[in-house]
What we know:
The chain has 128 residues and is mainly β. It contains no helices and eleven strands. The chain has strands at 3-7, 10-13, 18-25, 32-39, 46-52, 58-60, 68-73, 78-83, 92-100, 117-118, 122-127. The strands form two sheets. Strands 2, 4, 5, 6, 9, 10 and 11 form a seven-stranded mixed β-sheet that branches. It has a four-stranded antiparallel β-sheet with strand order 1-3-8-7, with no helix packed on it. A hairpin with a 6-residue loop joins strand 4 and strand 5 (46-52).
Amino acid sequence: EVQLVESGGGLVQAGGSLRLSCAASGFTFDDYAIAWFRQAPGKEREGVSCISSADRMTYYADSVKGRFTISSDNAKNTVYLQMTSLRPEDTAVYFCAANVGGGSYCTGNYYRSVYDYWGQGTQVSVSS
Length: 128
């Protein structure tokens, strides 16, 4: 059974940093596309970033480019989202989502893809 577990959220002041983790299990961590999404109260879910194992390509939403970095550690079956220069508008529940196997890739439209697996989310709150 594929499982995704997010962690690392919390409360931070504007300008601060957090690192989110998405720990994956239940599949061989060598063929995946894993994306981070976020959803703030009253707003639509927004794609934040994506990374795929096959080509190591990464994609970012314009709103986080230059501030957030996605990476993966295959030895730990974990994808990270390093968030710096946080702003109050980054406040949201952050989710990781995955497609696995079958040559999964991120594309520029990763935020429109249908993902088979989702984590439960982790809250990020940024105070001004």
